[in-house]
Amino acid sequence: MQYGFTGRIVDIDLTTRQVNDYPIDEATLRKYIGGSGLGTRILYDLTGPATDPLGPDNVLVVMTGPVTGTRVPTSGRHSVLSRSPLTGIFAESDVGGTWGVMSKRAGFDGWIIRGRAEKPTYLWLDDGKVEFRDAGHLWGLDTYALDEKVKAETHGKACVMSIGPAGEKLVRIASIITDGRDARAAGRCGLGAVMGSKNLKAVACYGQREVPVYDAKGLADSIRAILPGMVEKMKARHLYGTANWTLTAEHSGDLPVKNWRGGRWEEGAEKLSGPRMTDTILTGRYYCAACPVGCGRVVEVKEGPFAGVKGAGPEYETIGMLGSCCEVSDLEAVALAHQLCNQYGMDTISAGGIIAFAMECYEHGLITRQDTCGVALEWGCAGAMVEMVRQIGEQRGLGIILGRGVKAAAEAIGGIATEFAIHVKGLELPAHDPRALASTAVSYATASRGACHLQSLSYPVELTLKMPELGYPETLDRAESEGKGILAAKMQDLMSLLDSLKVCKFIVTGGGGIQPSQLVSWLNQVTGWDMTVDEFLKAGERIYNLKRLYSTRLGISRKDDTLPPRMLGLPRPDGGAAGYLPNFGQMLNEYYVFRGWDELGRPAPEKLRELGLE
Amino acid sequence: MSVTFRFRGEFSRFAGRDSVILEIPGSGPFTLEAAITHLLSQVSIAGEGDAHAHASIRSAAFFCDGRLLRLQDQIPDGCMIHILSPLAGG
What we know:
The structure holds 2 protein chains of 2 kinds. By secondary structure, chain A is α+β, with helices and mostly antiparallel strands. Chain A has 26 helices and 17 strands. In chain A, helix 12 (316-323) runs parallel beside helix 14 and helix 19 (438-446) crosses helix 20 (484-501). The relative contact order of chain A is 0.12. By secondary structure, chain B is of the alpha+beta class. Chain B has helices spanning 10-15, 32-42, 51-58, and strands at 2-7, 19-23, 30-31, 61-64, 67-68, 74-75, 79-84. In chain B, the strands form 2 sheets. In chain B, strands 2-1-7-4-5 form a 5-stranded mixed beta sheet. Chain B is globular. The A-B interface holds A 232-237, 239-240, 242-249, 251-253, 273-275, 315-317, 320, 431-432, 453-454, 457, 459-460, 463-465, 474-475, 478, 505-506, 509-511, 575-578 and B 8-10, 12-13, 52, 55-56, 59, 61, 63, 66, 68, 70, 82, 84-90.
């Protein structure tokens, strides 16, 4: 028996309705850990340059990690990977909630979905069994309504992963939603459209199996010793959620304002802040499985123009993109837009970036009221922002073009619209400004899925986070470029490991203070392995390099590892990062050298040999 | 020397106000660490004596004129220090 794993990954072909086991040996598990790492290995082996992201030959890989379903704090997570229909390159999304735990209790470490069902279908994974079910009557339902229906048809305590109308209509920013009204999302890269292209509306699972743990007592003792201090350090995140960052982001110049052209925006940020949410629309807090913190928001808006909100509340990223980036400071409007995105099944980050882009196009006369079905798409207009979410989700009006993503939308609109399209490799920027925190520039440019803050999460080290085991006993100057390429690479490797174990990044970067040696200790206690910190970090480097190999195989190189011109040449006008631009070229060169990649950004043969990837 | 502390977000709750102006006795210059120690000795924090509130303020993000301050940094006379959440969003 392999501790920490159920020992079963299923390979489900929707075309033939065949279900096979996909065997993985222990040596491979040690090399790739699980979750994101193992999922990347599988994706690399099963897809390639000829794979159509929306074709039956693409695969959707859903993976848990070795600690998922154990008592390791924040370990109730899973990864979803595929080739992205939005960017055309490597895609992955890390998801919280309860799905990961339930998948393992049902007897599955992960599953691979390939092919295309002849008609709308959903899968019912019940205690080791896989059942294909008709979803014709569910097609068209939003994710909240669908969750209730599928539970009624399967098991009241089943976990449901589903797409909404956006995924069905192959909207390129479509997401996959789990946990119904609590709405945890595989948000980025258009993974919902991959599911839609396969005629797969939902997957439900339920089981009661235990995850085998090698040293259960040692693990329990360790967690008992660490947990109280960790919870105390993260108390503000429990009280005010990730939205608590909004004020710091505004003050430091990290908050996107007016499609990344603005600077100071203090009054608006106050209206969208975590404490303001707590005072107004908050009705409860949501805990992902095995999480002692509870940073998720539960909100309700009962009356007014944005009434009808009930359930998951907006995170910082949503506030930054659907709020400040559109200059919308109405918290209830942002909460409604957030809920609509969840119900349609769409990424809130991309949606916000696209709507801000459209507002700038409208300002410059590139689109008019004729295009928007009569909507005056003006900065700060909360109603217009919400209406654009509806148009994208329902694929009508301007939403048809915007639903392709900001890069394709700019090409369709033409003219100088590409100036306003803020993305890296086709993925819209999340709500952190590389002109405020230097390492973010190189982190975004080299992230394997496009503009992503989570694949590196280097910027906390430029604020208040110390990572002594990675060589950072003190924090770094946020405006300094030297050393930031190395920081970005080290943090990418570490984040790859967190995504592979399947624990929340916040226990490291969000106040939890956990260091790599503690993570290895938990991994060994769960699996019975004798992994050293060096071997663990090397696995992280291997995983990140394999993601890069996936990209370089598609032709990605230095030409793509860049930022939008606005980030490289246009400083913020005022506020906490006024006048600053990162020395991007210096950081990228440093990054390549540290990584052992050549000047075009390709992993060198000797590096691949060192990592066992030749 | 005089220092204005501006409490933002959760810290305005702990302090029960938005800002405070403190006169730190002595000729200085003072480090941020010394100023915070003085702050905590002078200002009634909500749940005074509450370890969490004090520990939270000590680990906050401190900004002055857009610059992130370290505890050992010297602070100028008359400066305004913003006390903000250190927990990065995501």
